[in-house]
Amino acid sequence: MPHLPEHLLNGYRNFMNGRYLSESGRYRELAREGQAPETMIVACCDSRSAPEAIFDAGPGELFVLRNVGNLVPPYAPDGEFHSTSAALEFAVQSLKVKNIVVMGHGRCGGIRAALDPNSAPLSPGDFIGKWMSLIAPAAETVSSSTFMTATERQTALERISIRYSIANLRTFPCVSILEGKGRLALHGAWFDISTGELWLMNKDTGDFERPDLG
Q1: Sign of the CA dihedral 198, 110, 102, 58?
Q2: Binding-site residues for Zn(2+), please?
Q3: Do 165 and 74 meet the contact criterion of CB atoms below 8 Å apart?
Q4: How many whole angstroms separate alpha carbon 161 and alpha carbon 52?
Q5: Would you kindly state where each structural domain of the chain is located, as residue ranges?
Q6: What would the pLDDT profile of 40-95 be if each residue is shown by its tens digit?
Q7: 164, 158, 169: which is closest to 199 by C-alpha?
Q8: Does CATH place domain 36-205 in 3.40.1050.10?
Q9: Predicted confidence (pLDDT) per residue in 28-44, tens digit
């Protein structure tokens, strides 16, 4: 039995004969000098919305954090385990990124679960349910709207959750202080898997708008 699924080995073979071969100098430089990305992306772990592919990023360009629903919890220095907060701390304090982008996406399973109060836990621990409770107030408000279709409610909460995460980012002192000094910028984005469209959050109004790509 192979140590990895065959399709992964084939993909690695293609990587070594293709991208790594053409960018081997860059990889050696990153190994020698370390990483210095200017942008952190907080994205969903959904396999259909990979930030590196969407933004056509090369090695070392993006510091990517992925979790269910692309959520950022509020600042909570309580001694518990906080993987998202740990990644954020490293990106801001050590890598000194200049931008943090919270990127949601269409047809998000985590958001769908948050909208369905009758969804059964996938395990006794209900880790997804606990995690998505971060946006429970918004989910309750959106799900109670009878004027929207199920698809509209889903899209609405996907975008609202991005605003929630950005608000929670500002509860971290290292983020709010640097943002106040103009050394760190926070951005929101939403990716439509079916069309490839990227919508950006207007920092003044909170609305999501299509960028002019020229």
Answers
A1: negative
A2: 44, 46, 105, 108
A3: no
A4: 21
A5: 1-34, 36-205
A6: 999 999 999 999 999 999 999 999 999 999 999 999 999 999 999 999 999 999 99
A7: 158
A8: yes
A9: 999 999 999 999 999 99
Between CA 107 and CA 155 the distance in angstroms is 8
98, 36 contact by CB (below 8 A):
no
Distances (CA, A) of 183 to 38, 136, 176: 11, 32, 10
- φ and ψ at 125, to 5 degrees? -70, -25
Q: Which amino acid is at 42?
A: V
Contact call for residues 114 and 135 (beta carbons, < 8 A)? yes
Sheet containing strand 39-44, strands side by side: 62-67, 39-44, 99-105, 185-191, 198-201, 208-209
Count other C-beta atoms under 10 Å from residue 7's C-beta: 8
Best CA proximity match to 40, nearest among 80, 97, 116 = 97
- Measured CA to CA, the distance from residue 133 to residue 47 in angstroms comes to 22
The H-assigned helical ranges of the chain are 6-17, 19-22, 24-33, 51-54, 83-89, 109-115, 127-132, 136-143, 150-169, 173-180
Q: Is 61 exposed, middle or buried (0-12, 13-18, 19+ CB in 10 A)?
A: middle
Strand partners, 101: 41, 187
Query: Which amino acids are annotated as binding site, given as ranges?
Result: 44, 46, 105, 108
Is 169 in contact with 100 (CB distance < 8 Å)?
Answer: yes
